[in-house]
Amino acid sequence: MNPPRKTAIVLAFAALSCAPTAHAQHAEPYAGSKAAPDNPMQPYAGSKAAPHTRAQPYAGQDAREVKALSQDEVKQYLSGSGMGYARAAELNHYPGPMHVLELGDELQLTAEQRRRTQALMDAHKTQARALGRTVIDAESALDALFRSSNVSEADLAARVRAVAAAQGDYRLSHLETHRRTRALLTPEQIARYDSLRGYGAEGTAAAHEGHGKH
């Protein structure tokens, strides 16, 4: 056998030995995946198709009477509920009158403390309910502006500021009531209140430090 013919045979055998490996690499492009089906629009086996819908957080809220407020929020405003507006006071050793009365026995309130705390809460509730109505009316006015499809920059600014002012007055009423409640209690009662409400054991020092500064 002459050298050129021998070389050609060797190369042919080498090509045949490599063919299965190349075929396998093309058939399995990614480990654990399957080859693309005949339909190029069909996803690879094991993959997930893109979802047809996405969560819509405001879905159904267009039916609200006041778009920015849920029915529960409307009820809370109308009842003068705290709604977390007094958290800055409550979590800084300024108790609220409602919880003080609820914990009256544990706090060992005197008859005079109970009377004054109850009077403070009653007056606050009357005020907070009226202010809550103002918040709802302000939000309704903002709704009406957008429903009119005629929203000027000046009108929008006025309506938004009215909402902010109403919410501010509502919050101030709650915070001021907490401020006044604290003045009716002893430092020991304030510390005990914090403990009963689960606010930690550091209430005693803070109550002594701040009591009498109102």
Task: For this entry, give a set of tags.
single chain; 214 residues; Four Helix Bundle (Hemerythrin (Met), subunit A); 9 helices; elongated; disordered C terminus
What does this structure look like?
About 20% of the residues are buried. The protein is elongated and about 60 Å long. It has a domain at about 65-185: Up-down Bundle (Four Helix Bundle (Hemerythrin (Met), subunit A)), CATH 1.20.120. It is built from nine helices and no strands. It has about 210 residues and is an all-alpha fold. Residues about 5-45 and about 205-214 have low confidence and may be disordered.
List the helices and strands and how they pair.
Elements: H1 3-27, H2 71-79, H3 87-90, H4 97-102, H5 104-107, H6 111-147, H7 153-182, H8 187-196, H9 203-210
Helix pairs in contact: 2-6, 6-7, 8-9
CATH fold naming of the domain at 66-186: Four Helix Bundle (Hemerythrin (Met), subunit A)
The level of helicity is 55-70%
Characterize the main sheet: none
Rg over CA atoms, rounded to whole Å, is 36 Å
CATH architecture of the domain at 66-186: Up-down Bundle
Order of helices and strands: HHHHHHHHH
Stretches with pLDDT under 50, minimum 5 residues: 7-45, 203-214
**CATH domain class of the domain at 66-186:** Mainly Alpha
Terminal CA distance reads 115 Å
Shape: elongated
* Structural class determined from secondary elements: mainly alpha
Mean pLDDT: 80
**What is the count of helical runs?**
9
- The fraction of residues in strands falls at under 5%
Provide a brief overview of the structure.
By secondary structure, the protein is an all-alpha fold. It has helices at 3-27, 71-79, 87-90, 97-102, 104-107, 111-147, 153-182, 187-196, 203-210.
